Amino acid sequence: METIVSAGLSTIKEGAIELWGGGRGKVLTAVTTGWFLSIGVRMIYPVMLPYLRSAYGLDLTAAGLLLTVLFLAYALGQFPGGVLADRFGERVMLSGSAMLSAVTLTLVVTARSPLFLFAATALFGFGTALYAVGRYTVLPRLYTDRLGAANGLTAASQDAGQSVLPPVAGLLAATFLWQYGFGFTIPLFVLSGVVLWITVPPRRPDASDDDDASLVGTLRSLRSVLRQPSVVYATGVLILGLFVWQAFTSFYPTYLIDEKGLSNTVAGGLFGTFFALGILIKPLAGVAFDRFGIRRSLAIVASGPTIGLLALPFVDDFWALVAVTALVSTLLGFATVVEPLLLDALPEAVRGTGFGVLRSVAFTIGATSPAIFGAAADRGFFDVVFVALAVLTAAMMLLAFLLPSSDGPAENATSSK
Fold it and tell me: Can you tell me whether residue 113 is helix, strand or coil?
């Protein structure tokens, strides 16, 4: 037993040395910290929704539209973020995104009208989108043999941000003013932008950066790749997953407060728990993909939210709500198995642009769900929409089985026998 434990600790130590060796550790730390902030602060919005509704007189429909604006701006920023990352390098995009986020959050907390709030929110969503593609494409330049571990650590930082920052924001808003719920992150973004500029190495121009490699030519070369069945069906799964995820996360705290009678602080804590579980779920989803392939791993990931969302309208006990939250949280693993499939299908020279296109399409469609959800909730269908989301997660499982059987290591092994 001691030998097994010693071997395990030795493996962990060797892996950590490889991740942090050669000066790469400071870059990885800076990138993961920036991602922690970008996504964590985006998820502050659902927790702050009751305060924003009170401050600006928003009904559920308008509140849903505000979150749709946030997610839509994030979606539309994916494509230019990918193009600019290919052209100018990740250091410019990552540090610039952090600084732009600090400026736009300042506009959010100083907004004097709903229109100004909507505009500032759109700018913030676009700014965080510029970070998204760059954080994916910078890691392959730094890691060749430990890319999976580096990606996993970065993904875990996202869930850490979503689990820690929203409850902190809710506590500050309840104790002081709602503006503090956003405002405490502004200096953190500024610091992150400075650190990213100092630590992330500039990318040397290569053939993909030449002026004659026009954007039109790049998109034309991607056309055949984007038609591959694995890309088409995987993008469909990504769209469904984002549609459900954005609707659920947008209104879950409000639903717990208005329909289940929880306090703002308790609802924010339960919301944070949802994302905290993702720190465990995402690595497990990756292991499931390696072991079972994309078909079965997606079925495992989607089954939890299907059951949880169906049960949610019928439970009121706090611990039952904790159990439902845990079931729905397995949804957080869907992108872990889908996005690597999409990245692997794209040529390296245009990976940023191609991935940006696919993410823009998926996030744009998914961004419509908060507005639809809010309008339905305003008309007395708050419970019904959760059941509808369960149907969509069930559809994810069905769509997963349309993926070519060669996708996924385990299925490769099976098909080759």
Answer: coil
Residue 299 CB coordination number (10 Å): 16
Q: What pTM was computed for the model?
A: 0.80
The Cα 233–Cα 228 span in angstroms is 9
End-to-end CA distance of the chain: 36
369: which 2 tokens? 């769900």
The rounded distance, in Å, linking the Cα atoms of 147 and 126 is: 27
**Which residue, chain included where needed, has tokens 């639903």?**
255
| Measured distance CA(305)–CA(311) in Å, rounded | 10
- For the ranges 77-86, 141-150, 338-347, which has the lowest average pLDDT? 141-150
**Among 399, 356, 91, CA closest to 244:** 399
Q: What percent of the residues of the chain are helix, what percent strand, and what percent coil, each to the nearest 5?
A: 85, 0, 15
All structural domains of the chain, each given as residue ranges with its CATH number in brackets, are: 22-200+216-411 (1.20.1250.20)
C-alpha 99/C-alpha 14 separation (Å) is 35
Q: Cβ contacts of residue 1 below 8 Å, gap of 6+?
A: none
